[in-house]
Amino acid sequence: MKIIEHYFRLRENKTTLRTEVIAGATIFVASMYIIIVNPSILSKGGMNYNAVLTATILVSSFSSVLMGLYARNPILIAPGMGINAYFTYSMVIGLKIPVETALGAVFWSGIVFLFLSVFRLRVHILKAIPEPVRLGAAGGIGLFIALIGLFNAHFIVTRPPFIGLAKFDAMTMTFLAGLFIVSILVIKKVHGALILSIILTTLLALPIGRWYGDASAVTGGSAQLIRWTELMEMPDFRYVMKMDLLGSLKLSVLPAAFGLLFTDMFDSISTFVGVAEAGNLKDADGEPRNIYRSMIADAFGTLFGGIFGSSSGTAFIESASGIQAGGRTGLTAVVAGLLFLPFMFFSPLIELVPDIATAPVLVIVGVFMINPITKMDWGNFENAIPAFLALIMIPLTYSITQGIVFSLLMFTVLKVVSGKFKELSPALIIIDLLSILLLFVEF
């Protein structure tokens, strides 16, 4: 135990072994949906569901443990939402790129990320992001996480051309009960409040679809009864080391690989900025803590995606749930990463925790993460407008990347028309140009 305390500097970070373990478990429970969702998306492109599930677990576990041991940050890395959709619908289905070739593109983008990270180019890009954009992004990510929770619980539903409140039924009432539970536990400062509320809400949800109500709209344990004989499922390693490295270097593939590269890069940088700002994981200079090593670990997350047979791994915004549960060191990420491994054999257990059990926690994490916007001088419109743009665009576009891109471009334009061009660093100008390219790639 003393070795662990010394290596992760628990006392220096004012945390304990128990707190870090609970925080790691909290991140895992809040993020474990990716074990089911990532294979669901990638299988639409013809990939085998069970093989992608195995790859998802391997990427998440190896990358997160590396983040914890090497970078010593409480950040989970797993196949990113949005990136997996780009991989499937843009590359494999849209451009008809073979799966093995697309995996090769993921691998090479990881190599490029590693190069950019080792030579600190990604760190320079991150440091060039202005404070108003960072503050707005942190709040925007908070709203984004809360919106994900509300949608996952089917408490908020789409009502074209807008969104609206769902009808009150067993699902929505259970979600509200969970929200009340986690709020009360947080206010009472109960240790492990987030993960305890997930357990309690899961128990409340078990009767739905069995004794009363309809659970068909929401995945999880409330939707179906799993027999003990169905709990175990052997891993499938068919995509491990199956990437086509030469085929992915063809000119016809490079535009798609370019889009994958920059979508992944902006997504990971945006997440690091937002989580560090909201969780106060910053060094003496006000920059995200251990960012150099964190970027290298994140690059390996993408590299592992290609090696194991999944879309790119990236920093997960749900890491904020563990940070708010008290996680301050890399031990949190190690615990979260190790918790993925048993589900290579017991993946059906994931289905025992319904979305409505994790949704209230995501809403509360949104409350925690909105705090940085109080540091914003809302009377200074040169800074307030870009900050607000990030704050509102991230949840409304369902994309951290797009929110930050539009915020950066607005910040630059307003500084130019205000005659403050000297406040724009060369690195920021380069980011702006890359942002414009990214918009063309995404649209």
Give a nutshell description of this structure.
This protein is mainly α and 443 residues long.
Tell me what you see in this structure.
The protein is built from 18 helices and four strands. With 443 residues, the protein is mainly alpha-helical. It has a domain at 2-140 and 226-349 and 365-369. A two-stranded antiparallel sheet has the order 1-4. Strands 2-3 form a two-stranded antiparallel sheet. Helix 5 (83-94) packs antiparallel against helix 11. The termini are far apart. 55% of the residues are buried. The model is unreliable at 221-226 (pLDDT under 50).
- Give me the Rg, rounded: 21 Å
| Low-pLDDT stretches | 221-226
Number of helices: 18
In N-to-C order, the SSE pattern is HHHHEHHHHEEHHHHEHHHHHH
Describe this protein with a few key phrases.
443 residues; mainly alpha; two-stranded antiparallel ribbon; two-stranded antiparallel sheet; 18 helices; globular
Topology:
Elements: H1 2-8, H2 17-31, H3 34-42, H4 49-71, E1 77-79, H5 83-94, H6 99-118, H7 121-127, H8 131-152, E2 156-159, E3 162-165, H9 170-187, H10 193-205, H11 254-279, H12 291-308, E4 313-315, H13 319-324, H14 330-340, H15 355-369, H16 381-397, H17 400-417, H18 426-442
Antiparallel strand pairs: 1-4, 2-3
